[in-house]
Design a protein that fits this description.
Elements: H1 4-7, E1 17-20, E2 31-34, E3 48-52, H2 61-74, E4 78-83, H3 92-100, E5 105-109, H4 114-148, H5 153-164, E6 168-172, E7 177-181, H6 188-196, H7 201-209, H8 212-218, E8 223-225, E9 237-244, E10 247-255, H9 263-301, H10 310-318, E11 327-334, H11 339-355, E12 360-365, E13 368-374, H12 378-391, E14 399-407, H13 413-430, E15 436-438, H14 445-450, H15 453-458, H16 460-475, H17 479-488
Parallel strand pairs: 2-3, 3-4, 4-5, 14-15
Antiparallel strand pairs: 1-5, 6-7, 6-10, 8-9, 9-10, 11-13, 11-14, 12-13
Length: 510
Amino acid sequence: MFSVAEALKLDVFRSARVVAGHGGLDRPIRWVHIVDIPDVASWVKGGELLLTTAISLKDKPDLQQKLIPSLVEKGLAGLVVAVGRYFHHIPPQMIAIADEMDFPIIELPFEVPFVEVTKAISQRIISEQYALLEQSIHIHQTLTSLVLKGEGLDALANALARLLRRPITIEDTSLTLLAYASHGQVDAARQASISQGRTPPQLLAKLKERGLFTELRRNPRPRRVEPLPELGMTMERIIAPIVAGGEIHGYVWVIAGDHPLEELDFLAIEHAATVAALIILKEQAVREAEGRQRGDFLDRLLSEDFALTPATIEEAAGLNFDLERGHAVLILRPDEAEFGILCSLESLLDRFLRRRGKQALLAKKRGDLVVVLEVERAEEGQELMARFREEMAHLPADFAVGVGRVYTDPTELHRSYHEAQEALAIGRLLADGRRVIPFAELGFLHWLYHLPPARGEENVYLKKVHHLAAHDAEHGSNLLLTLETYLDNGATPCKRLMPSSFTATPSYTV
């Protein structure tokens, strides 16, 4: 962007002198405007370098005092005053105010025609705008060619980083990393994003608090993001939403790196966001087609009549699914039954497993995300899901996971599927806060879950438990708690297990 400091290097300003506002010489000039009327602020829009003879200000100290604040409020670049006829020098009060507000005031000899000033600056601005347009077209063509070549987001990030000589990050709507490219210096926040695979939770919370993402949803245009040094974000950034079909699918970030952000960066990130949308839509279409194929195969694989045939073996191989390895079925069930949440979970889990080299078959099925995971032990699936939940703690919706047992015979995988379903159902009934529920740890709860209500009513021990509950309710005792503690400790009688409020009563012995 053409600044006041750069304008002062033009030949037409050889005899000019900056008398105030040296701290604002980096203000950008968008155009030049000549005004010689008292109500100057009504005739400008912002970004102009204002030229004036100041005839309307002569002998009017009140107007002189109000002028600079009104121009600063309008966002002008600076003020050039022709001196030698109406003003020989800028009044001291104007200089003091301009210095305080870092607003440049330039004295120019009256003999220098304003037409020469406007011509020189306009030519320079037009020349820079033309060069900017050429650069923008080059960036657009370079990035668009990636789509035609079938390239992905990694190639887009690398190309944009080379073109702008800046670090680039592409993230999804949950601020999970999709692609990145490094170029030059980065700050601690960027390093953390790469190592964690997402924007750090504290930084994300602060950006939300600032209203950044609300504003991007309201007005999906590139925005400058000021630094947050206390959270390691010491460099300014530009963020642009990736919009397709009226929905935001993610974000492109341009990080300042080792040189200040420029107008070209804003143009380039818009091109990049458009190309990213095309890439994401293409990948989405491919995933949906593959998803239908996976879903069909998964339905047959998890049915009780699945059989190993040359056709099913060939189909599994085409899906990179090894039928000779052990597998466990995991079911992820979001608390909020929204299709968008399920789609996000599917893509996030797919990337999570790929990063760890895990083979799995994923498909959406009746509001759940069903995963057939290649593992040797069911505990491995349980541990992976616990870690995945930790990494996804920043998601707006929570989810529970049921984990079935491992089967090496693919014709038995329907059992693991039903076990995972049962684990979820029992976990919901227990309501004990557990969100990853392995079937293998249910113990006798599996038997109780399948016991018909009528058989439960016949159980003499259940009647005794009801008796204990009634006694607790009537007398405020803790007999049920004592029984639970007794059973939790292997049914070993020990005085230290008894609450102080408990009084042993032989008739309640279970």
